[in-house]
Amino acid sequence: MKGPWMVIFGWRNDVEFSNLGCGRVNPFADDRIVPVSVFSEHEVDQLHEVRRRLEAAADDVHKRGDVWYDPWLPAYGCALQKTKVNAAVVKLEVLFVDGWERTLHFLLTGECVHSAVPKAYHVLHCADLDSALEENFNKKFDSKLWKAQQGKGSKRSAAINDLGHQKTPQFIAAVVRRAVAAVTSAKEENEDNGFERDKRFSPHGGTTDVGQHTGGRPRDTCWPLVHAAISRNLCCGPGLFRKTMAMFHLGLLKKTIYQTQGAFRRGIDVKSGCDSSLVELLDGGYDVSGLQDECAALRANVDELIGQLNRQSTSQYHLPDSTALQQLNALSSEVLIESPKRGKGLNGDEDAEERRRRALGNLNGCWFIDGAMCSLRDLLGWEKTTGTSNANKCVLVLRTVETFMFTRSHELVDDDQVADNDEGQFVEQMQSLVTAYQNAAATWRQLPRDKSVLDVEQRSRELLVLWIAFCLVHKSCVVDVPLCAEYNIALDWKDLKVAVLSERAAISALQNVAEYSRGWNDRTKGLQLFHMTNQGPTFGFARRFGLDSSAMVAAYNRTWVMKLKSIRRSGFPQMRLE
């Protein structure tokens, strides 16, 4: 039974490694950024863990958390899964395939076979067994299953709560429950009399009989059962399972191609040896006419095989015959297309630019700018010339600004990228852009439209744009105002997990914001600046910033002197100016 999954997890050709964890390890991980042919180190570790579970033997020493399968029962469409919950308890479950659907496939002989394939799997919880009784349980299970298999004819029936013998997963679950009851019972049970007519130990319904059906063939359950076990034990979501299956089928295809090429080369070598032997016999004066006829017959078989392959390839591409051409020629279009009439009031002297502007105005369109390539100044100029009177323009403004911000988010983690920020105007321009973006979002929400999940994702995108803008401004202010470098960013990167995003660029931008804020706070380890619930550090920052600024100190002194003079003129001559 080790062969199939040895091929799956032992085949390592064309498999690379990259540092990427799944969503269970990193909530911001997105496995779609890695090509299908690439497996990360975390994914390879998970595949090795699944391989260990599938190959684990019953007599191995198991520790807490281990999962193994013993026995595999493909004749019943299931396997007994055992889980070491702790040092004293082993959980017994029956993993079985389900969701059978009818299908047709053709054998090499051309015979059409009606069969069924499973599309799902389920798990039946049977019991929690004391680990000290596991060996006795295995013996009881084997003996009770063997005894049930000896039943013939009417003894296979499960009527009146008998065990019977049916090729169903529920039958195996009933055997498991009886074996557990036998090893945990206070008295010895030589027979099953204590279990007969007891509903707790009788087989239940609801599962498919996978035994012999019409045609005398049992259902194919071996590979679907292994398929279900692999899918159940992978923790990285469906992506890793699909990648593994794709690589497995690709490996089988390569193996088949290599075997075919090898067989063809061996056949050519045998043919060359046969030709040499015939030439030697012919030189010796022997009559080789009979062998020549056999070689000619073999050559005819080879030519026939090649001809069949060529006919299969060319059957998909052929020209229609004369009858089909006549039928096509006789067809007439049911839609009458007439040339539009020219309007009498049109101005024939207008140039192409005027016609283009007029057409653009008639279509109620707007200019387009590439948010990933434009500068901040160009984007602000484009936004001012683009109104948001309808839904299409609102969405265009939102998506263009989001594309610009998502692209600029790479500057947070990549020091090699130098932004084209205008000296002294970056903060003001970024504030203007964010304000325009929020106004467009507010206008878009007021437009009539159907409520959908897009509202939730749009709010997440707005939050992401705000945090990207804040981090970009923070990175700029740290250079201009070194005092900012002593404070943390008022953002816990773990709180960003509430964002609902589906676009890869948005997820990448979210990761950049999380990496920047997390890295800055880990390096600085200071108080949080501009925190909404704790404004003490913000006031302290303002005080220190004001005392360090000569311009602000001079302005403060001028204001204080003017205030004192005003008080003195109002009737308090005893106050003295210092």
From TrEMBL:
It comes from Phytophthora sojae (strain P6497). This is Uncharacterized protein. Residues 187-217 are annotated as: Disordered.
